[in-house]
């Protein structure tokens, strides 16, 4: 039972009960319900409820404004209502199929650290470049330093994703970090355990044959290397979310602080090593056997398939099924065709991102393109995949097709790799047969990479459109950014929001905005829109513009205690208003003589929906016709 359990019960009851809830999400300050019947909701009861700021309806959502502690209330509402927060079957079309959900989970887990991921990818690439030009020796202090700085996120990926996946699945963040750290603990990796003698072998003489080096609680644990892996940690944290939820139900609240993480970590890590990790290993072994059979059937077909699926295999960590086969080929045959078939994949991915740079309208995503291209040239494509192409889906598919075309060329001309050397641009030399001084395979790879990149770039430019951003910015200016002007609803002196005497406003708990110290006791409409909320005490009014901007005008501090005295409303809730229409009058002198401040916060309560909210330069003698806020979409 959480801290806000009682509040959650009241909210659920007053939105019409749990059977009336179709889905629930939350933003920075509000619970966003989709209700089956909004008529069943008791708006007045919710608005007057302790712990609820107000209620708004917008975009098909029934929104209960809470404040900056909304995630805690959200978790308790989910528990009280017995829902997951995901859409019900009626909303399945909005959530998408399993594939779309999986992409959403993976991209959501990578989104928070894309900048750092791109930076580390660039460091890895530059280190490879400097080593190639022999600016310093491999193994030198400089090499070790840059390797550590560039490889840190990639090597300890489960720890980083442990944090972001915990946020995604509503698990304690430090619990997620602990689970990720356990997966990469050095002495439990297969590379470390493999130095000893197996105590037994599971599934002997099958493609699932697995040596066992340790037992835990008497059960055999199949060793695996989890460093740099992605999918295992996501699955384990997802499992941990269910363990944590169960633990909170059965463990007394008095000792939940340490016992819930204890059992969540213990059970999740155990099952991660016992079941989840080995399942990935089994899939890897099965894929390896499948590609071997495919190569025996048709080397060209195998090259196309490897090229097409290589990046998808990388996402799930299943590309490791092909690495052992390549190493065996190199040691027994002196050459390999598997790695040669996958070589164009990173270049196709890079070309797609370069094309996206010219078509993206989202400024933040656009800024990620150049670092992703730089790291991609050096063979590090994680920033490109997880940050850009995979979330957009079609660009990722185009890169897969481009890689398949590159694989087809390598298969048709019999290109081979002769060493496992550099990645990206430094991998071309891997295809030189030094024994016979033959560079034909390297020439083939130049052709394959060139064709794959040209196809990927052109196809992205022709067939991909940034629909998601376009839909959000239908009303745009010539620079591609929609903006909405909020004129001052009150005359007086404007001050930054952080100067507000009320800390809830000052800390931005309800959104961004400004504070006005009124000189005229009158509030007018700052835009064309609708009166969404007129408080019974008339001390506060909620508006929504015709473009969806939600604004709260709170006249004075603690003036709710006046119970409407010294206030007069000129419009009713639900009324349509035009910019400049009189909304509320109030007696400044009388309010101050009653011991209350008339300091008036003006808040954009759906601030999270906008790119930026810019305050006007003018601060003294603000008039109703003056621009107060410029809101960018």
TrEMBL record:
The protein's predominant localisation is membrane
Annotated keywords? Cell membrane, Kinase, Membrane, Phosphotransferase system, Sugar transport, Transferase, Transmembrane, Transmembrane helix, Transport
Q: Which SUPFAM superfamilies does its entry note?
A: Duplicated hybrid motif, Glucose permease domain IIB
The record places domain PTS EIIA type-1 at 502-606
Decide whether keyword Kinase is in the record. Answer: yes
Per the UniProt entry, the signal peptide is none
Name of the molecule in the record: PTS glucose transporter subunit IIA
Native organism is: Candidatus Enterococcus murrayae
């Amino acid at each position: 039972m959480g801290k806000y359990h009682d509040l959650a019960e009241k909210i659920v009851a007053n939105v019409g009960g749990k059977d009336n809830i179709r889905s629930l999400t939350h933003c920075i300050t509000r619970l966003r319900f989709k209700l089956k019947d909004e008529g069943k909701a008791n708006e007045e009861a919710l608005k007057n409820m302790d712990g609820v700021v107000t209620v708004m309806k917008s975009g098909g959502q029934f929104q209960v404004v809470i404040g900056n502690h909304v995630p805690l209330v959200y978790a308790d509402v989910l528990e009280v209502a017995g829902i997951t927060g995901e859409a019900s079957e009626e909303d399945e079309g909005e959530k998408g199929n399993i594939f779309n959900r999986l992409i959403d989970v993976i991209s959501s887990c990578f989104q928070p650290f894309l900048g750092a991921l791109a930076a580390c990818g660039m460091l890895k690439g530059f280190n490879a470049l400097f080593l190639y030009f022999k600016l310093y020796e491999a193994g030198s202090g400089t090499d070790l330093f840059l390797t550590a700085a560039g490889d840190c996120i990639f090597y300890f990926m489960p720890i980083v994703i442990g944090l972001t996946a915990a946020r995604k699945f509503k698990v304690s963040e430090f619990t997620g970090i602990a689970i990720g750290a356990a997966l990469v603990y050095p002495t439990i990796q297969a590379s470390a355990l493999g130095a000893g003698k197996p105590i037994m072998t599971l599934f002997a003489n099958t493609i699932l044959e697995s040596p066992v080096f340790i037992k835990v609680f008497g059960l055999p644990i199949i060793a695996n290397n989890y460093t740099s892996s992605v999918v295992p940690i996501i699955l384990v944290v997802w499992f941990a979310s269910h363990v944590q939820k169960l633990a909170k139900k059965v463990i007394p609240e008095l000792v939940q602080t340490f016992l819930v993480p204890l059992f969540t970590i213990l059970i999740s890590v155990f099952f991660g090593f016992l079941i989840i990790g080995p399942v990935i290993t089994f899939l890897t072994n099965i894929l390896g056997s499948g590609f071997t059979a495919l190569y025996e059937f048709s080397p060209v077909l195998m090259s196309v398939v490897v090229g097409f699926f290589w990046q998808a295999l990388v996402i799930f960590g299943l590309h490791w099924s092909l690495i052992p086969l390549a190493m065996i080929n190199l040691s027994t045959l002196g050459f390999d065709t598997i790695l040669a078939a996958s070589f164009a994949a990173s270049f196709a991915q890079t070309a797609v991102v370069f094309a996206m740079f010219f078509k993206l309208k989202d400024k933040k995503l656009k800024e990620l393109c150049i670092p992703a291209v730089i790291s991609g040239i050096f063979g590090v494509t994680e920033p490109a995949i997880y940050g850009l192409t995979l979330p957009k889906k079609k660009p990722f598919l185009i890169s897969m097709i481009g890689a398949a075309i590159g694989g087809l060329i390598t298969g048709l001309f019999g290109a081979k790799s002769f060493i496992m050397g550099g990645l990206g641009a430094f991998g071309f030399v891997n295809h030189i047969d030094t024994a016979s001084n033959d560079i034909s395979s390297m020439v083939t790879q130049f052709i394959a990479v060139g064709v794959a990149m040209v196809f990927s770039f052109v196809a992205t430019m022709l067939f991909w459109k940034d629909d998601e951003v376009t839909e959000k910015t239908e009303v745009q200016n010539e620079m591609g950014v929609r903006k909405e002007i909020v004129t001052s609803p009150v005359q007086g002196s404007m001050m930054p929001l952080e100067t507000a005497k009320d800390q809830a406003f000052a800390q931005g708990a309800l959104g961004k905005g400004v504070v006005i110290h009124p000189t005229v006791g009158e509030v007018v409409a700052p835009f064309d829109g609708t009166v969404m909320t007129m408080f019974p005490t008339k001390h506060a009014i909620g508006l929504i513009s015709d473009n969806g901007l939600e604004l709260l005008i709170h006249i004075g501090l603690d003036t709710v205690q006046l119970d409407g005295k010294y206030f007069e409303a000129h419009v009713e809730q639900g009324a349509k208003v035009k910019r400049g229409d009189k909304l509320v009058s109030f007696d400044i002198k009388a309010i101050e003589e009653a011991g209350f401040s008339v300091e008036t916060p003006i808040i954009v309560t759906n601030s999270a929906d906008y790119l930026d909210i810019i305050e006007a330069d003018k601060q003294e003698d603000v008039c109703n016709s003056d621009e107060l806020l410029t809101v960018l979409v």
